[in-house]
Amino acid sequence: MRRYLARRVIAFAITLLLVSFVTFVVVYVIPGDPAEIILGTEGSPEALAALRTRLGLDRPLLLQYLEWLKHALIGNLGVSIQYDVPVGQLIASRLPVTFPLAGLAISLTIVAGIPLGILAASRHRRPGDVGTMLFSQLGMAIPSFWAGLLLMLLFSVYLGWFPAGGFTSWAETPAGALRSLVLPAVALGLVQTAVLTRTTRSALLEVLREEYVQTARSKGLSDRLVLYKHALKNSFITIVTLLGLQIGHLLAGSIIIENVFYLPGLGRLVLGAIGARDLPVVQGVVLFMATVIVIVNFAVDLLYGWLDPRIRYN
Amino acid sequence: MAGLIPVSVTIDTVPSRPPARRRQDWLAKLLAHKNLLIGSCLTGGLLLTALTSLLYTPQDPLAISIADRLQGPSLVHWFGTDQFGRDVLSRVMLGAVVSMSVGVVSVGIGLVAGVVLGMLSGHFGRALDEVLMRFMDALYGFPAILLALLITAVFGPGIFLSMVAIGVVNIPVFARLTRANFLVLRERDFVTAARALGASDAKLIWHHILPNVMSPLLVQATISFPNAILAEAGLSYLGLGMQPPHPSWGYMLKEAQPFLRLAPTYAIFPGVAIALAVLGCNLLGDGLRDLLDPKVSRQR
């Protein structure tokens, strides 16, 4: 187990280092001068020189990267050009919107996707399976922002059950905050639910064909017991792998959904920063999101060893 | 002589089927597979719409007519009009060109770069393999939208950069697939035989290994294509893809949002177009995978 853990930790550290390098390189090794890109053509030579010094552009690239990485490791992602506030502080202020949104969306995905997948597998090639697969195909084809618009049209414009946009802060009324997140979370979770349903079904069908399942059946175990005790447990590796990837997709998808529902989360922050050419904020948000995604995938890797002992011993 | 056993060698020869027969086989498979059939029809429809729109649209997709703004569907404007009185049907048709172009170019970038890197990694292995695959791992955790945000923050929004961002994010999938197939194929007897006969690395790769990797790559390309359409629509919705006044489905939905109460149909048609295009490509990809990989089709 120790060897398995050590290998995973090394791979995690390398991936994180490369992600940070990609994030750094895209902004700093571009043709042209980042200071000119930020200030535009109207920037005076003095302002340009000051910004270059502030961003550390007058030093060798590797030194710039190491310096930037050293600061990033202690949470210092620079200062926003637009707001003149530390980027880390800006990100932290938006997390109470983005994390609950992604959390709610992944909860909905798990609560709906796994049971639907089980239903489809247990009724293979029967109407329940066909109906679920139809939902899955349609769900995967609908972009989350269009689903958001349709939900807004039905539940906000026509029925008036939910707000059409905006966010009531958690401090004001937690119920109001939750209400603001329901439609965006459903829109965000729809595609992922469709994908999880399909994957759960495929994984279960594959396990159900294994010899040990046939043996369990021949021993007279009920279909229910075979499905839940033997098949589902062994399908979890596939399901957990997908869930790890889905958390990344949900975080990235929240950038679009927050803009559909005018939610003041990381997505709105980064889009506003692009408009204002606030590169430290764009870089900080992208690095933060990519790091969260890498950490989630690392956690999934560790979970494999716990779910299936064969993995940690091989 | 007693120890010698007469051996007769029989070489089974399979007569190759004539091309017309092979075409009939493919047609029979296509008709027997509902997903493949529906997917082919929808994707064919998308392609036809895109090509037609280059030559003909019912109205000028860019012509503004304030007097006709936000009309519902009618005989003159089948899908209604937008906030500038432009014909939504014509704009949806022209939007198909953008989606198809993004799909082709971004999947092309991912395919070509991924195959080259996967080939180098799988064929030459060792340190190069380790370095390239770690890079691929890092890129794999990078959703297309994050890379697109970084790129557009630097260079400004545009369709070409969106294509590049989506394409770059596609590279790891193709690289891993190519590498995995190369690792298996380079140990096969026909490759060993070719190497023993003095074939160079380039000849081994191009004539012996690569042709055998084409099927899984083709399937992966059809799976990546609808994802590229969705990613482009998302980026266009954020205003980072195709720039107005040229139509794109994602940006049309963005423009429709403030008028949900006044003209709800405006938010319907571009969305239906995206959903049908993605559904068609997904079904086509599923169907091709079933045809080309019987192991997968057994699980379905």
Summarize, please.
The complex is a heterodimer of chains A (314) and B (300). Chain A is mainly α and 314 residues long. Chain A has helices spanning 2-28, 34-39, 45-55, 61-73, 87-122, 127-141, 144-158, 174-208, 211-218, 223-260, 266-275, 279-307, 309-313.
Any overview of this molecule?
The complex is a heterodimer of chains A (314) and B (300). Chain A contains 13 helices and no strands. Chain A has 314 residues and is mainly α. Chain A has two domains: 2-72, no CATH class; 93-307, MetI-like fold. Chain B has 300 residues and is mainly alpha-helical. Chain B is 70% helix and 0% strand. Chain B has eleven helices and no strands. Chain B is globular and about 75 Å long. Classes of the chains: A mainly alpha (314), B mainly alpha (300).
Query: In angstroms, what separates the terminal alpha carbons of chain B?
Result: 57 Å
Tally of helical runs of chain B: 11
Low-pLDDT runs of chain A: none
Strand coverage percent of chain A: under 5%
Q: For the record, give the distance between the C-alpha atoms at the N and C termini of chain A, rounded to a whole number.
A: 9 Å
Radius of gyration from the alpha-carbon trace of chain A, in angstroms? 24 Å
Shape of chain A: globular
- What is the CATH class of the largest domain in chain A? Mainly Alpha
Order of helices and strands of chain B: HHHHHHHHHHH
Rg of chain B to the nearest angstrom? Answer: 25 Å
Strand content of chain B: under 5%
Helix content of chain B: 55-70%
Q: Superfamily at the CATH H level of the largest domain in chain A? A: MetI-like
Number of strands of chain A: 0
Structural class from helices and strands of chain A? mainly alpha
Averaging pLDDT over every residue of chain A, what do you get? 87
What's the oligomerization state? heterodimer
User: What is the CATH topology classification name of the largest domain in chain A?
Assistant: MetI-like fold
